[in-house]
């Protein structure tokens, strides 16, 4: 009886050493084969077109297009694509955006090898796999009130260290309106001041770290 063909995998990460390590680790498995690598979202989309892999292992934070944006772009063109997010971060907003974009799994880079292999095999078979620590973060996200698009703009500027007057000038709105938006941001994020709001925004992945 012939062995089934190995599942074909595309590895996407902007760090060459990570791609090399992942590829070497997966290629020793008889049922898995890395058929392509990419370091950017744009390259990942082209690699997917070229190889039509059974699974994409996608880094969340990529230069230019994010992992979530790349996932959404691939799925628009290939609706049956199966994508597993791999990240060093589990900020609630990043997890939410990745799954909302259509990823079928999310695991952290400190995952043990056996669990990564399990996640890969689960997702290639059409099932979902969410790292338990990521699942708890996602559950926390559900309990938070979402920020409006204007509140997100204000939060980004607060995180850059801009004062109310500067934000008002940048957005062409009244300073009193900025104060109101800041107050709403603090309430919704359950933080005491602007510094805590900025820190929480980075920790939760609302504002990605560069």
Layout of helices and strands:
Layout: E1 7-12, H1 16-27, E2 32-38, H2 41-51, E3 55-59, H3 67-77, E4 83-87, H4 92-101, E5 105-108, H5 113-124, E6 129-130, H6 132-142, H7 149-159, H8 164-171, H9 175-189, H10 194-203
Parallel strand pairs: 1-2, 1-3, 3-4, 4-5, 5-6
Helix pairs in contact: 2-3, 3-4, 4-6, 7-9, 7-10, 8-9
Structure characterization notes:
This protein is of the alpha/beta class. The chain has 2 domains: 7-141, Rossmann fold (3-Layer(aba) Sandwich); 149-203, Orthogonal Bundle (Arc Repressor Mutant, subunit A), CATH 1.10.10.10. 53% of the residues lie in helices and 14% in strands. α3 runs parallel beside α4 (92-101), α7 (149-159) packs across α9 (175-189) and α7 (149-159) packs across α10. The longest helix has 15 residues, at 175-189.
Q: In the CATH hierarchy, what is the superfamily of the largest domain?
A: Response regulator
- Tally the beta strands: 6
Which class of the largest domain in CATH terms?
A: Alpha Beta
Largest β sheet strand count, sense and barrel closure: 6 strands, parallel
Structural class: alpha/beta
Broad shape:
elongated
Output the radius of gyration: 20 Å
Domain unit count:
2
Q: Might you state the CATH topology name of the largest domain?
A: Rossmann fold
- The strand order across the widest sheet is 2-1-3-4-5-6
Mean pLDDT: 88
| Quaternary organisation | single chain
Q: What is the distance, rounded to the nearest whole angstrom, between the alpha carbons of the first and last residues?
A: 51 Å
CATH architecture descriptor name of the largest domain: 3-Layer(aba) Sandwich
């Amino acid at each position: 009886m012939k062995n089934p063909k190995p599942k074909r995998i595309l590895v996407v990460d902007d760090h060459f050493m990570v791609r090399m390590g992942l590829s070497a680790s997966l290629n020793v498995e008889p049922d898995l084969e890395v058929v392509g690598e990419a370091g950017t979202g744009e390259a990942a989309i082209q690699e997917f077109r070229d190889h039509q892999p059974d699974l994409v292992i996608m880094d969340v934070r990529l230069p230019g297009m994010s992992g979530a944006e790349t996932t959404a772009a691939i799925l628009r063109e290939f609706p049956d694509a199966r994508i597993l997010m791999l990240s060093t971060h589990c900020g609630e907003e990043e997890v939410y955006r990745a799954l909302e974009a259509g990823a079928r799994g999310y695991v952290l880079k400190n995952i043990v090898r056996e669990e990564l292999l399990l996640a890969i095999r689960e997702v290639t078979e059409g099932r979902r796999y969410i790292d338990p620590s990521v699942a708890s973060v996602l559950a926390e996200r559900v309990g938070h009130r979402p920020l409006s698009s204007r509140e997100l703009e204000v939060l980004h500027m607060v995180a850059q260290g801009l004062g109310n007057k500067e934000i008002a000038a940048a957005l062409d709105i009244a300073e009193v309106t900025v104060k109101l938006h800041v107050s709403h941001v603090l309430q919704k994020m359950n933080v005491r001041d602007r510094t805590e709001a900025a820190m929480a925004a980075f920790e939760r992945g609302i504002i990605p770290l560069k």
